[in-house]
């Protein structure tokens, strides 16, 4: 049985559009996928929703898991927060993310 290859698109901090391929549940979270394969300089707190370095802005309308209180608190301390901001470490890496588009925002957590 072959698995369908999933992919997503992100716009990095330099404005470059990039594609990331992944398998369903290959990593625990979206942050872990990008940290391991594409972006080494984020995810400082290793997914605890504390640091804000995995701040992203979603451009796709998806029903993602609701924010918990830790994610909400960290995002509330980020100056560049947008209406569709999320922490990538709090988003499970599953097939729901296939085709999603988002921007990487530099963390400005205080
Ligand atoms: S890795 Fe620190 S908030 Fe996501």
TrEMBL record:
Could you list this entry's UniProt keywords, alphabetically sorted: 2Fe-2S, Iron, Iron-sulfur, Metal-binding
One GO BP: P450-containing electron transport chain
Quote one Gene Ontology molecular function term: metal ion binding
Cofactor(s) this protein cannot do without: [2Fe-2S] cluster
What InterPro entries is this protein classified in? 2Fe-2S_ferredoxin-like_sf (IPR036010), Adrenodoxin-like (IPR001055), Beta-grasp_dom_sf (IPR012675)
Gene3D superfamilies recorded:
3.10.20.30
Its protein name is 2Fe-2S ferredoxin
């Amino acid at each position: 049985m072959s698995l369908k290859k999933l992919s997503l698109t992100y716009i990095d901090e330099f404005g470059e559009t990039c594609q990331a391929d992944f398998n369903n549940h290959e990593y625990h979270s979206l942050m872990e996928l990008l940290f391991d394969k594409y972006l080494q300089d984020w995810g400082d707190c290793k997914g605890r929703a504390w640091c804000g370095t995995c701040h992203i802005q979603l451009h796709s309308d998806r029903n993602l898991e609701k924010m918990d209180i830790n994610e909400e608190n960290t995002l509330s301390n980020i100056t560049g927060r947008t209406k569709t901001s999320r922490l990538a470490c709090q988003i499970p890496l599953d097939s729901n993310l296939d085709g999603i588009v988002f921007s990487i925002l530099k963390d400005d957590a205080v």
